[in-house]
Structure formats: structure tokens, C-alpha cells
């Protein structure tokens, strides 16, 4: 998802700088600013960068999110391997960088959770998603998305906000497997809740409001899941 025209990429939350090193090795960036809030990982990153003799190509910075990145300094920002709400918080704090009138950066994000909230936030910030993909490794699923500056209509369905319009339209094979797996999990949860309610009725016990709310929520999740799977019916 890195544009060939990328000159300076900011790798936020770089950890041991593996992404930063890969970008330089593959000639996908001229310079990388690798930033992390923790000194320990940055020390390891420093050793890794030195081992690949990339000190002139990769600059390491101790930074809380985008705090140490100047406006217009990077044309692409990568934030990967964090919770979606943390990514959203980092982007909110760095709003001045996203709102740069001269050079707003492309964003490549890999939220570990709350992906729907990240998508909604991007459109609220006058960004729009141009590409998405889903990957699976060792039984875990990862969504990566690319967003570009420019306000566009964000009137998506619940399924598109949750699973990604481009993932669904592109009939991403990994997403299809994920949807099927999620459907089984949700159906099992629903069956368990129904069993709990039935047993309570048989014994004359009170069914908590929390249980009923959870059942309603799961039913809605299943409906969204099934609407997403409609994309794959004819493939």
C-alpha cells in the first residue's frame, strides 16, 4: 500500500523498526522516521538499523504518537499493530498534521480492534479509504487499510463500516473465511443465551436485563454478518 512516490514515511509505534527496515530494503521509501513512545524498543531498533547499515536512511525518535513529527515532514504515515481506539487517539492528537493544506499525508493503518470506529473517524476527518485487505497468520486476522486526504461520502451500510467496503466489494477470500468463522461463534453465543433464558423460564427464575440486551446485540451482529456474506453468494 506504500505509494512508489513516497519520499519520507513515518513509522509510528515502530517497535524494533522491522517495517522501517523493510521499506528501505524494498526501495519503497527514500527516508523513514521511526518513532516509538518506549526507549527499550527504540534501543533494539537502533541496533537493527545499524546492523543493516541504514543509519542515514532511518531516523529514530522517541515520540508519543505524532508529537515529534513536524507538519509536512512525511508524505505517508504508518500506524500498525495497535488497538483501533489508540490509533484514533494518536490521529486526533496529530490533527494539525492531517489538516495540513499543503501536504496532508496518506495513512496506512492496521488496527487490532475497533476497526469500524477507525473507519468512521477517517471520514469525519475529511479522509477517505481507497484500499483495504485482510490477512491471516497463525489463526489471527488482520485488516490493513489505506486512506487518502479528501472528503468523500461516507454513507456505508453497517456491514461496510464493520468489515470494509473494499474488502467486501473485492470479495476478499480471507474476509470470507473470517465471516464464516465469526458466524459460527455468534450462533454458538446466541444458542447459549437462548438456553440460559429457557432454563430460567422453566425454573421460574428472573432473566436479567443484561442477558436480554446481550441477546439482542448478538442478533444484530448476526444480521450484519449475514448481510456481509451476501457479497460472496455468487462466487
Describe the structure.
By secondary structure, the protein is an alpha/beta fold. The protein has helices at 18-25, 39-51, 84-93, 95-98, 115-124, 158-163, 165-169, 173-203, 209-229, and strands at residues 8-12, 31-36, 58-62, 76-82, 106-111, 127-137, 140-149. The protein has a seven-stranded mixed beta sheet with strand order 3-2-1-4-5-7-6, sandwiched between helices. Strand 1 (8-12), helix 1 (18-25) and strand 2 (31-36) form a beta-alpha-beta unit. Helix 3 runs parallel beside helix 5. The longest helix is centred in the last third of the chain and has 31 residues, at 173-203. It is elongated and about 70 Å long. The protein starts with 7 loop residues before the first strand and ends in a 6-residue tail after the last helix. The model has no long low-confidence stretch (mean pLDDT 93).
**Shape assignment:** elongated
**Order of the strands making up the biggest sheet:** 3-2-1-4-5-7-6
- H/E order of the elements? EHEHEEHHEHEEHHHH
Helix content: 40-55%
Class from secondary-structure proportions: alpha/beta
Task: Based on the model shown, name its key terms.
7 strands, alpha/beta, 21% strand, single chain, seven-stranded mixed sheet, 9 helices, elongated, 235 residues
List the helices and strands and how they pair.
Elements: E1 8-12, H1 18-25, E2 31-36, H2 39-51, E3 58-62, E4 76-82, H3 84-93, H4 95-98, E5 106-111, H5 115-124, E6 127-137, E7 140-149, H6 158-163, H7 165-169, H8 173-203, H9 209-229
Parallel strand pairs: 1-2, 1-4, 2-3, 4-5
Antiparallel strand pairs: 5-7, 6-7
